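Why run this: before we spend reagent on co-expression, it is cheaper to look at a predicted model of the complex and decide which construct boundaries make sense. The entries below are exactly what would go into the expression plan.
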Amino acid sequence: MQQTSTMQPLYPAGHPLQLRRNILIGLGIALCALIVMAAGIGAVRIAPADVIKLLMTPPGSAAWQDLSGEYLQQAMVLWNIRLPRLALGILTGMALAVSGAAMQALLRNPLAEPSLVGVSGGAALFAALAIVLGGSWMLALQQLIGEFALPIFAFIGSLIATILIFAIATRQGRTSIALMLLAGIAIGALCGALIGLMTFIASDLQMRSLNFWSLGSLGAATWPMVTMVTCLSGGAICLLLKQSSALNTLALGEVQASLLGVSVRRLNQTCIAAIALAVGAVVSVTGIIGFIGLVAPHLVRLAVGPDQRLVMPAAALVGAILVLLSDLLARTIAAPTEVPVGIITALLGVPFFLALLFRMRRKIGL
Amino acid sequence: MLQVINTSLSIGDKTLLEDINLTISPGELLAICGPNGAGKSSLIRLLCGELKPSSGEIIWAGMPLRQWNLLQLARQRALMQQHAEVGFAYTALEIILLGRHPHHQGAHRTQDYHIAMAAMEEVDAIHLAHQVYSTLSGGEQARIHMARVLAQIWEATAGPRLLLLDEPTAALDPLQQHRMLTIARNWANKGDITVVAIVHDLNLAAQYADRIALLRDGRLQAVDTVETIMTPAMVEACFDLPCVLLKHPDGGTPMIAARRHH
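The model came back. Tokens follow.
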């Protein structure tokens, strides 16, 4: 122990805890800057300085009463349209990125992703079933619990899909990674087919909301919805972040993880439930937005290494940034019409996924 | 003290271990030897809790393993495995720090870094600290894992400690084989640490172990001091290998050499 003082400095690049703090602060500042910028872009333009000023005047405040003319219009757009959408985007990015990072650690496979392994598909299918087949029963439920009705269905769907996939791939407490990915593809395909069937029998009105489900959009954001997603996803994200150290031990395999004092079964169950909740709640409002859960953790790992305690919070911020950027692109690229954001993330994510595959291909000597 | 009492293990209709009885004291290094498929790995998997005995009981520090709290046990017991693959590009130091997880379960404290460094020094791997684990050679990876298990049970304050080594010398060159078993020997010599190691090479086992357990077909054939076990009769009975007994020129440790096959 005494010799440690005579050795080279342990971390030439700086202490990892300090590094971790700096990285998270840096990403946080980038996200804030992006929020201010994105809040000002759209049909009604708001200068960044005005955005900041208007952020200080929430609706109902004394200063709000003094607003008039162009300012009032800008304030209304900012508070009623832009901000809930931005908030939903941030939550979506965080939920998908943290779930992706957790899933990759759980399965020890960098290619696991909520939309690839069928979790999002399950949520979308149950939402579709509720929209098309719910009928009067669904209406009654909506009157009872309002905005929460559809998300609850989506959550049940993602939970069922997740459990099914894990059950297929697990035997006697061991989870086969290859089986899990294949089961995810099968479940995803089944969900896709059944959603297709729902579109087939849907009315025109139902069709519109179904279309929105399969392509993904932040356009439906309202404050009550954002509140709901914050409650459900926010809690699940925190729960996942708390598992980051335990998830690190899984890199050594399940046997070593339990020898390090981690109850692997409980970790699996906690993470599965939290992923289903985080993804289900988000997907229930936005529809399927793919590849964020793959791209965000990967970018972070490339930059700072695989320590989950840094990867998960940093990926949350990067995920939020990616979704906001994609959404900005989605609503400006063909203005005044809007491209579904799921299309943008897929267009950006698929080349990334392929690049990853090529890297792995070289590694296994192909 | 580690006690294995009347322990059997069956999976399906296959009996892997039958009626094993063993008592291993603190300060002792027990080498488990035997031909392929004798049940050596199954025994280690029982001792580390990966498998549960079909019958019998394994007792650590006076309490059956199944009654131990996972975290408490993690501070006292560590296992080094032979094929240890690591997902993702963790550095060697990060891997070793994983061994400290049972002690902090969240953020590393400064003392965890010091222990990780000291453990790395013990296996002569300081220069590998910031290299990515998967880029290391098999021997280097084995040393990193050794450092990790040492870091896990570094402090005597956790109570009696148990070090399980599943073929720690596989994939190592002769120098590193001896270094690895020297570390195991030194740790046993600390007095409060029980060391159980699967060793393929009988001569290596004889040089470092206090006692040798011979397994064959899931049964414990003999557990005794090196001098008693290392006889042509014992070895031939266990391995079907006709051999002669030699004396090591330094210190006179008994050694086995195979007879030429005719």
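Chain A touches chain B through 32 residues (CB under 8 Å). The two ends of chain A are 46 Å apart (CA to CA). Bring this page to Monday's planning discussion.
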